[in-house]
Structures are given as structure tokens and as C-alpha cells.
Design a protein that fits this description.
Blueprint: H1 5-62, E1 106-113, E2 116-123, H2 128-139, E3 150-151, E4 158-161, E5 187-188, E6 192-195, E7 209-212, E8 216-217, E9 228-234, H3 236-242, E10 248-249, E11 254-255, E12 261-266
Antiparallel strand pairs: 1-2, 1-12, 2-9, 3-4, 4-7, 5-8, 6-7, 6-9, 10-11
Length: about 270
């Protein structure tokens, strides 16, 4: 007996329902797979971003080439040289020039900054180690072309020079101490020429020195004061006009007028 029209329509309706359900299942599967793929993509992107951030933080903040943290400054920041000192037991160890170079006498010379000549005198008897080192570096041409990287305009008033790296972290390859010829009252009059060193380390003198351009009181620390190398006896007013009066740049202690040691002579 042939199927009736109603039976055939029922079977076709069931088939259409099965086809529809099959398509819905495939569509749901595709949506699920798409969501999963999108989630995986987002996770991969996040991982890449996190890894990139970690690498940058490590390299630029704690990796190779990171400078040592500088000591915090107070209202009267002291002249500091942050180079790691060569370990020594005293002023004549290692490659430090012997104190005999100073010959136990006063020296005169000219320190020229940006073609501004400063007449200087060196106290070879009062600071034999510092003067011997300074003279040796001058005679070797060490200072020529180096910058004056630091200018302080509040609390203390100094222009600091003599770092081959130009950022306060360099030196001549040796260090020496102890502190010599520091003023007992911690007052450094205008024109004082003194050695910079690490805070609290009396054996960290090297090549960096500072010129006091206005009377300054610099408190002593655990290592004492700062070795007074000598005096600027002429040209300080020209230095103030040509360099000091322009102040600093960038809100820090970098001189607004780039300052270079043109030459140094001593005799």
C-alpha cells in the first residue's frame, strides 16, 4: 500500500528537523572553536607583552651596564665621585703616583675651562698625595678634553670636573687616601680647589676635583672632609660669567653651558 501524503510530509519534516539540528551542531562547534582560538590568541599576546616588559625591566633597570645607585643628596649635597675604588691599603699602593712627585712644595699653573684661563696654586706640602696624583695626571695629558659634569647652585656652590666618563662614575684607574688638608671648620672659601670622593670613603679620591665658586660649608662625614688640593687665584669671575651664571639644565646638576677642560699646565 503506498504511503499517504501525510506520512511523507511527516518524514520530510523529521528530515528537515534533523538537518537543521545537524547544522546547529556544526555552527555551535564552529563558534566554540572560534572562541577557543580567540582566547588562545589573547593569551599568547599577553604572554609576549609580559615577557617583553620583564626583559626591558631587567635589562634597563637591573641588568648589564646599570649604574650603581647614587647616594641620596641632602640640602647641602657633598661633591661625590661614585667610581668603584681600586682596593688599596694606603696612599702609595697600586698605581697611585708616589707622594714625592709633589716635591713638598707649592706649584702654580693654569687650568683652562672653555678657553677661560684660571690661575691655580697647588699645596704640595699640605696635600702631597693629592697634588702628586694631580700633577701626574696633568703631565700625562689625562685631563685635556674632559668635561665638568656637575654644577651645584644651592646648599653648596661647586663646579665638579675630571671624570673621563662624564657622569660622576669614572676615574684614573686607581684611588687613594686618606683625606688630606681638609678645613677643620668645614668651610671651603670661594676659589678652593678640592678633591671629590665617595661619601664616607676616605680612600676613594681619584681624578675628580671641584672648584668652589662661592663660600660653602660642606659637612664632614665618617671619612672626614675633602682634600684641599689648592686654590684658584685668578679668573674665577670670568668662570662665573661664562659658565656658572647660566645655571643648570633639565632640573638637575648638569651645567647649562657645556664645559670642557681645554688644558692644564703646572710648574
Amino acid at each position: 500500500m503506498a504511503p499517504s501524503s501525510s506520512d511523507r510530509e511527516a518524514r520530510e519534516a523529521k528530515q528537515r528537523l534533523r538537518n537543521y539540528q545537524a547544522r546547529q551542531t556544526v555552527h555551535a562547534s564552529q563558534l566554540s572553536r572560534r572562541r577557543r582560538d580567540n582566547l588562545v590568541s589573547v593569551i599568547v599576546v599577553l604572554v609576549v607583552v609580559i615577557v617583553a616588559i620583564v626583559v626591558q625591566v631587567f635589562y634597563f633597570s637591573g641588568g648589564p651596564g646599570t649604574p650603581l645607585p647614587a647616594p641620596s643628596t641632602s640640602a647641602t649635597p657633598a661633591p661625590t665621585a661614585s667610581a668603584e675604588p681600586t682596593p688599596n691599603a694606603g696612599s702609595n699602593s697600586g698605581d697611585v703616583p708616589p707622594t714625592t712627585v709633589a716635591e713638598g712644595r707649592d706649584w702654580t699653573g693654569t687650568l683652562t675651562l672653555n678657553s677661560i684661563p684660571l690661575s691655580i696654586s697647588l699645596a704640595g706640602q699640605a696635600a702631597p698625595q693629592a697634588v702628586s696624583s694631580f700633577i701626574s695626571l696633568v703631565q700625562a695629558g689625562f685631563y685635556t678634553g674632559l668635561s665638568c659634569h656637575r654644577l651645584t647652585t644651592t646648599g653648596i656652590f661647586v663646579l665638579q670636573c675630571g671624570d673621563p666618563k662624564g657622569d660622576g662614575s669614572g676615574g684614573p684607574g686607581y684611588s687613594y687616601g686618606p683625606v688630606e688638608n681638609a678645613p677643620a671648620d668645614n668651610v671651603y672659601p670661594a676659589g678652593t680647589l678640592a678633591m671629590a670622593r665617595q661619601s664616607g670613603n676616605g680612600y676613594s679620591n681619584g681624578s675628580q676635583f671641584f672648584i668652589v665658586y662661592a663660600d660653602s660649608t660642606i659637612p664632614a662625614d665618617a671619612a672626614g672632609g675633602y682634600t684641599v688640593l689648592g686654590q684658584v687665584t685668578g679668573g674665577l669671575d670670568q668662570l662665573k660669567t661664562g659658565v656658572i651664571d647660566a645655571g643648570t639644565t633639565g632640573g638637575g646638576e648638569t651645567p647649562a653651558v657645556p664645559t670642557t677642560i681645554t688644558s692644564v699646565t703646572v710648574q
